[in-house]
UniProtKB/TrEMBL annotation:
HAMAP family reported for this sequence: OM_assembly_BamD
Keyword Signal: yes
UniProt keyword terms in alphabetical order: Cell outer membrane, Lipoprotein, Membrane, Palmitate, Signal
Gene name per UniProt: bamD
GO biological process: Gram-negative-bacterium-type cell outer membrane assembly; protein insertion into membrane
Subunit structure, as described in the record: Part of the Bam complex.
Organism encoding this protein: Photobacterium swingsii
Its job: Part of the outer membrane protein assembly complex, which is involved in assembly and insertion of beta-barrel proteins into the outer membrane.
Location of the Outer membrane lipoprotein BamD-like domain: 27-235
Span of the signal peptide: 1-21
Name of the protein: Outer membrane protein assembly factor BamD
Amino acid sequence: MKRLTLTAILAVALLSGCSSTEEVVPDVPPSELYATAQEALQSGSWTKAIERLETLDSRYPFGAYSEQVQLDLIYAYYKNDDLALGEATIDRFNRLNPVHEKTDWVMYMRGLTHMAQDRSFMHDLFSVDRHDRDPVPARTAFRDFKRLLDRFPNSQYAADAKARMIFLKNRLADYELATADFYVRREAWVAAVNRCQQIQRLYPDTEAARKSLDLMLTAYEALGLEEPIANTKKLIALNPS
């Protein structure tokens, strides 16, 4: 958490006027600068788009393009994987525009940004699923999408947000399952049972919930608890893998 906080502070400092590169952007009218930024966005030249948009933001913070520049920056930062900068820009936009016609999109982008922060280096590089990594960004993304659905149930982004919440729920359940498995391997039987029960309570409709029954049975058998053993076997029979 400390590392993320420092990153966020750095992002705010960068947003206050420092460009993401050392290139000097020509001193041209804002309309021309914005047009070149749009061309870069359309072509997927995220770094160039960010240069132009950051320059517009610093030179004309209250200009005609101010709100749209911030919205474009949110998108460009996300596409360029500048996630801390994107999160800081979202916070800034919401602070300056508490009521805006594109608030649902901004909430959706917050969820996407936090979801992207959940990616692991090992997964991106080697396609290795490290579901035991810190799930804080995934939990935050889940809350972001839930807030979007609660506030804007008819948003055009609602369907995708629901699908992403299902994915995130399974991601969080898998993390809890990995933790329960860790306890079983360490023979921390009570901790394993508690974690398995938590999975079944919070994520009952996931594959992890079904798998947690096997771990819970192992723990109960190690503890010699006959009635819980019998009950768990019944649950396993009712929920075959």
